[in-house]
Design a protein that fits this description.
The protein is mostly helical. Helix content is 65%, strand content 3%. The two termini are 30 Å apart.
Length: 521
């Protein structure tokens, strides 16, 4: 989902019947795009795994002394003998994906293997959670309720262009913030592009409404399970930690995004010559016919979808810490749910949505399987990324890398550290546009650095998420951007020209928020 996030459910969100879908790109365009395509996250992670393995053979092994909670104690790093022979090291590389899924960390030796005794180190819980989310989203889209709701929203606000843009961007941003709504937006171009053109705007307004609307929600994610959830899990903190700062960031960044798109839209509507993409005579289409009114079933489904995410937020939030302080005992009604419970929540919600949505047993089973299949890619990316950390763990080089980073952050202020985490993650987000894979790879290294800089780990998660979301607004390695531009018939160069001032503004705002967050703790 910007995951930009990384899931693909556009097939289930077909353009509405009354809207004329955009014509497909020329036959030779996919071939050109394919020859220029950046390596996938799979390929990047395999290359990273081999590089990390080679480096682990060269650099010394080492360890930190740790607290009772397992946090490294600053300035206690010391070298230790290499724990693996060369043959064992080769075996460690070959079994990294397996151990990345269900490897167990031995309580005595600290080594990770599938037949050890100790705590789960692999990402099996996250793997199953991603598949459950995939099933939920696919069934949600298959019921058609969300698509019908967006259609009605668009039609009801059609005579007030600014309200239409505001409403759609706000809805998409909320969905991006709570569930990583990104690839799903591809199914709405057939509705929103003709509507924007009929209202006197250009195709760039439609692109900004969709990509920036959902993207800013992902960038300012509050409880997005694909980014905040997975990153928090590997940072060993709750998904609700840091929620207050992220909520404020989301409000401000969303407001700026809506203002930015509306500003361009007003300028183009007043003077079409200022359009960055131009407006051809064919773009001036009549308004689509009124879509059918929402049925009682549609309304119930929308309520159930909202209730599912609301209950997810309730179940994971550290309410006692919010209202009584960070050291307060949990309230009796706090659930303190995590990946196993959330997996069951979304599986149950999936079945309920399917039944209420009128899907027959065979169709519901098919959609659940399809959703899990669509999301197998991000799930496997997580496993591969976790496999890289297994290599580092078993060669005892994780602490060696931490020690090098400790020297870098020593003497830096908390604010400078937080901004540094944001900047360091920008190139990583380019290489691995999968937010969950990026989180799995980066958090085991970056989260412990918070102890060295005297900042909360939640700030590291917030900085990392902002970097991932900021990059996924424009990098050509994400299908959300390139696929959306192809559907809207907008050139990538023109999109960058439209977007770069917004990127500059949000870059400054994110750095300011991180600085303030570090200052107030």
């Amino acid at each position: 989902m910007a995951e930009t996030t990384e899931h693909t459910t556009a097939e289930t969100a077909a353009p509405p019947e009354h809207a004329e879908p955009p014509s497909p790109p020329p036959p030779d365009e996919p071939k050109t795009a394919r020859t220029m395509r950046f390596p996938s996250a799979f390929t990047v992670l395999v290359i990273v795994a081999v590089i990390v393995w080679v480096i682990a053979l060269i650099i010394p092994s080492g360890q930190y002394r740790t607290t009772k909670d397992g946090a490294p104690i600053p300035h206690t790093y010391h070298h230790v003998p290499k724990p693996l022979t060369f043959g064992q090291s080769v075996n460690n590389l070959m079994l990294a994906p397996v151990n990345g899924l269900y490897g167990i960390k031995d309580a005595k030796t600290g080594q990770v293997s599938a037949d050890a005794s100790g705590e789960l180190y692999g990402a099996a819980e996250v793997f199953l959670f991603v598949l459950a989310i995939g099933a939920f989203i696919t069934v949600m889209m298959a019921t058609g309720a969300l698509g019908h709701g967006i259609e009605r929203l668009a039609f009801n606000t059609r005579k007030k262009g600014w309200l239409l843009i505001f409403s759609i961007m706000l809805v998409f941003s909320i969905l991006g913030s709570v569930e990583g709504f990104a690839e799903e937006t591809l199914g709405f171009y057939g509705l929103i592009v003709p509507l924007m053109l009929a209202l006197g705007y250009d195709r760039m307004v439609a692109v900004g409404t969709i990509i920036v609307g959902a993207g800013v929600g992902v960038m300012g994610a509050t409880v997005n399970p694909f980014s905040i959830g997975i990153a928090s899990g590997f940072a060993n903190i709750g998904i609700g930690d840091g929620f207050g700062l992220r909520l404020i960031m989301w409000v401000v960044l969303t407001a700026v995004a809506i203002w930015y798109v509306l500003r361009y839209a007003r300028r183009v509507r007043a003077d079409p010559s200022k359009s960055l993409v131009g407006i051809s005579p064919d773009d001036r289409q009549p308004l689509a016919a009124e879509p059918p009114a929402l049925t009682s079933r549609d309304k119930l489904l929308l309520y159930l979808i909202a209730l599912t995410f609301a209950f997810m937020i309730f179940s994971i939030m550290p309410w006692s810490g919010i209202f009584s302080g960070p050291n307060a005992a949990p309230y009796s009604w706090e659930l303190d749910w995590w990946f196993p419970e959330l997996t069951v929540l979304f599986l149950v919600a999936t079945v309920v949505l399917g039944i209420v949505g009128g899907l027959r047993e065979a169709e519901l089973s098919q959609q659940i399987a399809k959703g899990a299949g669509d999301f197998i890619y991000p799930a496997l990316v997580i496993v591969l990324a976790r496999g890289v950390t297994v290599i580092m763990n078993n060669t005892e080089t994780t602490d060696t890398v931490l020690h090098a980073c400790e020297k870098f952050v020593t003497g830096a202020s908390a604010g400078a550290f937080a901004i540094g985490i944001f900047i360091v993650n920008l190139p990583l987000a380019f290489l691995i546009p999968s937010t969950s894979g990026h989180a799995t790879l980066a958090m085991p290294i970056m989260a412990p650095l918070a102890s060295f800089a005297n900042v909360d780990k939640s700030l590291v998660v917030t900085a990392w998420n902002a970097a991932s979301g900021w990059m996924n607004l424009w990098v050509p390695t994400t299908a959300v951007v390139m696929g959306g531009l192809a559907l809207a018939k907008v050139g990538y160069d023109k999109y960058l020209r439209f977007l770069w001032p917004f990127l500059a503004i949000t870059f400054v705002l994110i750095c300011a928020f991180l600085w303030i967050g570090a200052a107030i703790g």
